Amino acid sequence: MDIAHLDIAGIGIGPFNLGLAALLSRHPHLSCAFLERKAQFRWHEGLLLPGTTLQVPFLADLVTLADPCHPLSYLNYLHQHDRLFQFYYYDHFQVPRREYDHYCRWAAGQLPGCHFGEEVTGVRYDNASERFVIDSVSVSGLERRYSSRDLAIGLGTRPWLPAWAQTRTQAPLLHSAEFGKRQGELEQCRRVVVVGSGQSAAECVLALFSALTPEQVEAGASIHWITRSGGFHPMEYSKLGQECFTPAYMNYFHTLARDKRREIVAQQGLLYKGISFSTIGAIYDLIYERSIGGREPGLTLLSSCDVETVEDLASAGLRMTFRHSQLEQRATLEADAIVAATGYAHAWPQWFEQLKGSVLATDAHGDCIVGEDFTAKRCDGGSGRVFVQNAEIFQHGVGSPDLGLGPVRNAVIVNQLLGRAQYRVPQRSSFQRYGLPET
């Protein structure tokens, strides 16, 4: 088996590792390969719904916030597709989600180091050569091996389902990540329940509610929107509130004890889990319009309701049991389909778990320890670096999965690979001072 020798191997090609590959394209003397099991780049494929946008400004592309003149910037993408003037008059800071996906696929197509349809099956550290050995297999069954000085782990997150949503049912019970693929099927269902109160849940509700006709409502069709939260609240989008997604806050966050970090992020849900003002407004306006004259609009919103069980009905459909946390009472709903917009979680592969304790140091919770420079702490004294992209938020704060911080993180990584400050890292990125005032 031939072995490819690399300076850095990237595992997973989401926006963050794709951005790293883009920055590295300016430095061809650094050999790299990025491996992704999917056949092509797709970004939240099941939620590329018409009318949906990024929740960050267009400047949060793959490269601009680290290298504004990079040829793989979003503005150059528009220029190359003869859309720059159209975007100029589009007059929106947030760009369509489907166009961001197309932009990333355009960028990936210009990076020969990105290998799609290739799944990593094993990673180990070879002490003799002081290099990582990565084994992979392509969709055609071809096995490959790479030897790399450093690693960049960019695996991202996977849809997470609570216990009640893992029940095998005859009627559709799906995660919101599948919504776009099964939207037509859901629109044919008479009664649909959407669970969750974040942006994904709101977008599913808006899409289904927009397609629901008054005639269907009169015939008994309905949508129920349920959340265990106390209400359907907006995401933080004020100018000062957004400064939690800056390098300045990330740097401050790393001065805190690890247990204190976990405590803080547990209280910061509405900074990133809420709904955009525009989506809330669109849903509210539609309810208002469809309730004129006392009509039943067809959408019912229930808060403080924690789903406990879901079971098949003897005839057809599903029965959901939920508990109102404030009234301390239970109720049931019958539905033909349920959409669980219950978020995402890290699911580290087996090869990564095997590195813990043998190569990578872990904390009391069994998690790897990622430093301010985005390298995972080693416990074996080896020299190779393991950079972790989008580590869980208790490592770097709520900004860890934010697209705007990706280029800055990649700039820090590339500077380490080059051994020099090639990219300028912001020294002052917020007006707030998160620590004590300087004396």
Automatic annotation (TrEMBL):
<comment type="similarity">
    <text>Belongs to the lysine N(6)-hydroxylase/L-ornithine N(5)-oxygenase family.</text>
</comment>
<dbReference type="InterPro" id="IPR031043">
    <property type="entry name" value="Histamin_N_OH"/>
</dbReference>
<dbReference type="InterPro" id="IPR025700">
    <property type="entry name" value="Lys/Orn_oxygenase"/>
</dbReference>
<dbReference type="InterPro" id="IPR036188">
    <property type="entry name" value="FAD/NAD-bd_sf"/>
</dbReference>
<keyword id="KW-0560">Oxidoreductase</keyword>
<comment type="pathway">
    <text>Siderophore biosynthesis.</text>
</comment>
<keyword id="KW-0274">FAD</keyword>
<keyword id="KW-0285">Flavoprotein</keyword>
<keyword id="KW-0521">NADP</keyword>
<dbReference type="Pfam" id="PF13434">
    <property type="entry name" value="Lys_Orn_oxgnase"/>
</dbReference>
<protein>
    <submittedName>
        <fullName>Histamine N-monooxygenase</fullName>
    </submittedName>
</protein>
